[in-house]
Design brief:
This protein has 338 residues and is an alpha+beta fold. The protein has 3 domains: 136 residues, no CATH class; 138 residues, no CATH class; 55 residues, no CATH class. The protein is built from 12 helices and 11 strands. The strands form 5 sheets. Strands 2-1-7 form a 3-stranded antiparallel beta sheet, with helices on one face. A two-stranded antiparallel sheet has the order 3-4. The protein has a two-stranded antiparallel ribbon with strand order 5-6. The longest helix has 23 residues. About 1% of the residues have low confidence. It binds zinc ion. Zinc ion (ZN) binds next to loops.
Length: 338
Amino acid sequence: MKDLNENPAIAGYYFQKRWNIFFENYIKPVFKVTDYWWRYEWQHRGSSHIHGFLWMKDAPQIDDLDTQNPIDLQRFVDFWDKYVSTWHPNVNAPPAAIHPSAQLFATLNDTKLELAEMLNRFQRHRNCQPGYCERQNKTTGEKFCRFGFPKKCREQSEFARDANRDFAEFHSKRNDEILNSYNAGFILGWRANIDFCPVINKEAVIAYVEKYASKGETSSSTYEMTLQAAISRLKDTDAAGIAYQKMLSTFSSERDISGQETCHILLGCSLVETSRKYRNLSVSPNPQETLNFANSTIDRTGYLEQYKKQPATMENITLLEFMTHFDWKGTNYTRRGG
Ligand SMILES: [Zn+2]
C-alpha cells in the first residue's frame, strides 16, 4: 500500500495499461466482444477499478427473451452457464497468502486450487457494511444487503426471482452463499475481484448505470464538465482565466481526487472508453458555450446552431440523422460512411 501511495503515476498508468492489454488479448476474443463501454473509478483510498458493459456476439438477445417461454429461458440459462459461475471448487482452501495480483508471472499455476485460494482471498462477500451494502427495509426495519447476500444455494442454474429481489435474474448453480459470480478464465487472468453477470433487463442496466457506473456527479464529474459549469457562472466580460480559477476552487471545495485518479487524468488516459462515439446535443434555446483553449475565447456555436445553418439541399434531414451521420467543416457538410 505504501508503494502504491508513493507512486500514484506508476500505479495509475499500470492499471489502465494492464486492463487494455488484458481486454484486447483475452476478453475481446474469448467473449467475442462486439461492443464495449467502461469507466475507470477510484475508491477513496485511491484503488482503481472499472465498471463496464460488454456486448457479446453470440449472447441471446435480451429484448427478444420471452420469460414465459421455457425453451427461450433454457437457451438463455445454457448460454450464460458457460460464462458465469457461483460454484466454489474448494471453499476450505486457505485464502491466497500473497495477493494474487502481486504474484510473479513465473509462479502462476492456473490450477483449480489456485482458483479456490483466489476466490477465498477476494471473491466472497463476507461482511455487509453500513455505508456500503447494508440497507434497511423502511416498513419492517429489517436489515438487508443490497447485493442480495447471502444467496440461496442451488443444484441447477435457473432464471428465477428470489424472495428479497425486485425482479427475476439469472442464477448459476451455487454451493456457496456468499460467493460473488465469476468467470474462471477472467479471474485467473485478472487476479483481482470481479463481478461478472448477464444483463437481464433494461431497468437493471439503468439502475446499474445510475447507481454504480456513473454515480455521484459531485464525486465523478470530469474536468471538462466542471470547467463548463464554471464558465456558465462567468459574466461576458470575464477573462477565460477566471474559469480556471473557479474550476480549481470548485475542485478544492466539492471534490476529492485520489493521487491515482489525478495521475490517470494528467497522463491523458480517458475516464470512459467505448467502442461507439457519442455527441452530446443540447436542445436548449440558449447557445451552447464551449471554451476554445487555443485562443481563450468562448465559442457559442453548438450542434443545434450548425443544424439550423445547413444548406437548402439538406432540409429534409432530421436533427437525429444530422447528429448521427454528418460532419462539417465551415459550410461544407459531409455524410460519414459515403
Ligand atoms: Zn452485503
